[in-house]
Amino acid sequence: DAKTTQPNSMESNEEEPVHLPCNHSTISGTDYIHWYRQLPSQGPEYVIHGLTSNVNNRMASLAIAEDRKSSTLILHRATLRDAAVYYCILRDRGSQGNLIFGKGTKLSVKP
Amino acid sequence: KAGVTQTPRYLIKTRGQQVTLSCSPISGHRSVSWYQQTPGQGLQFLFEYFSETQRNKGNFPGRFSGRQFSNSRSEMNVSTLELGDSALYLCASAGVSMTYNEQFFGPGTRLTVL
Fold it and tell me: What is the reported pLDDT for B70?
């Protein structure tokens, strides 16, 4: 699986939008972009995933660059509960099983 | 439906002992993966089981082993514990296909080796 690069940490104010970037310049055509987050003292939880088109769900939006070499996870209105480590992960469409986690971005949300 | 459960939640062992951790996946899920999380190495994949067969294995020594039962429950075992095995051990389950379905993680078992 190709590697991803994320900032170590980011800060946001409560109720403001947050844009979490991820670079994946060596992404292949069959790699899906997945985002997971890990709240303090919990296991990771799935946030969203996509291939080429932008994706929306109840938790977040995923904006994927046209060349797919980068993507951005968008939290539309950050809450204190969104403080977590966010992981951007590439998975080949044909791969099975494991996720390869990087260091992720630690998001802090200020009230 | 109930989430992934892991037992015990906390465990303290001494060097040289062995330990068995248990994971009950979400009902209907046939795939179970195990991960180790440490402050230094982050989240690392241990192994994955699907329908009682190990389908994928990470880069860990043979002291780490696992199995899956016919009801999809899984156990992992660590023999001859070392101080460096102190970690949070996470289990994740997924549906029939493990390819790009979301994985559901349990709360983890915190293992401390003294």
Answer: 95
